[in-house]
Design goal:
With about 300 residues, the chain is α/β, with parallel strands linked by helices. The longest helix is centred in the middle third of the chain and has 15 residues. It holds the Pfam family Aldo_ket_red.
């Protein structure tokens, strides 16, 4: 698996990471055994980057990763977690006291003294403009609670604001063939500043996998059912904000690029990689997705 330095963290990680929202909740039922098998399959395929959050299953995702890390202490896993969604979304709640409490909880869940990377979890735009928030994040680093911090964002403007902060190690933003705008300014700005870019929702919640039809149904507790139109949180988090039926049709067009084993990259070009599922709730899909990193994808 190809490795790259993750921005200002200074740590090398696999170019293909494992997002673990689905191990916590929001993607239908995933048993503990299946969750641990997904983590194992990913690592065996060369993945060394896990992304999670303290609210995924109210900590279940972090706890499962923590259990896995205890069983595989030499796997060299870099864990990026997120915080900030446990309170009403106003800048006044992004305080040092809350940051300490949230990171202490994540450290306990993961079983580590220092978090590799903590990211603000899609905070309001006003948070990005608040110096005290980033001063508090710097304090977390000084105290040894976290090794580095970043921001997960909803918009390109938020990303650019975060990149301009000298302590920001990474920015996580939706990037896939439906959402290419970050390539215009965000990715170049991050490269110039030495800030890492973590592409999230790369397969548009599975739409770009080619596995779904217009008749596909998801479980009631799957966000692809209950948040399809932004009923519970930002619509962009589900199918990248694309209408499901239109997305299925678009996936067919993208699938034409897949003839001969070539699949679309986030930038709209094609790379050699095996077919991969849109979510990684099964070990086989973790292995298939990891194969992209061995082929430049």
């Amino acid at each position: 698996m190809e490795q790259r330095v993750c921005g200002r963290t200074g740590r090398e990680v696999s170019v293909v990471g494992l997002g673990t929202w689905q191990l916590g909740a929001g993607w239908g039922d995933v048993s503990e055994a299946d969750a641990l098998a997904v983590l194992e399959a990913a690592v065996e395929s060369g993945v060394t980057f896990f992304d999670t959050a303290d609210v995924y299953g109210d900590g279940r995702s972090e706890q499962l990763i923590g259990r896995f890390l205890r069983d595989r202490p030499d796997a060299g896993i870099f864990v990026a977690t997120k915080m900030g969604r446990r309170v009403p979304q106003v800048a006044e709640n992004y305080t040092l006291d809350n940051f300490r409490a949230w990171t202490d909880r994540s450290r306990a869940n993961l079983g580590v003294d220092t978090l590799d990377l903590v990211q603000l979890h899609c905070p309001p735009s006003s948070v990005h403009a608040t110096d005290a928030v980033f001063d508090a994040l710097d304090t977390l680093v000084d105290e040894g609670r976290v090794a580095a911090y970043g921001v997960s964002v909803e918009t390109c403007e938020e990303a650019l604001t975060a990149i301009a902060r000298p302590g920001t190690a990474s920015v996580q933003i939706i990037l896939n063939p439906f959402r290419l705008k970050p390539l215009e300014r965000v990715v170049p700005a991050a490269a110039e500043a030495g800030v890492g870019i973590i592409a999230r929702v790369p397969l548009a919640s599975g739409l770009l996998s080619g596995r779904y039809t217009k008749d596909t149904l998801f479980a009631d507790d799957d966000h692809r059912t209950y948040n399809r139109h932004g009923e519970m949180f930002d619509q962009g988090e589900t199918f990248s904000g694309v209408d499901f039926e239109e997305g299925v049709e678009a996936a067919v067009e993208f699938g034409k690029l897949g003839a001969g084993g070539r699949h679309p990259r986030a930038d709209g070009t094609a790379v050699d990689r095996p077919a991969a599922g849109g979510d990684l709730g099964h070990p086989r899909r973790a292995v298939a997705r990891a194969g992209a990193g061995e082929r430049g994808g």
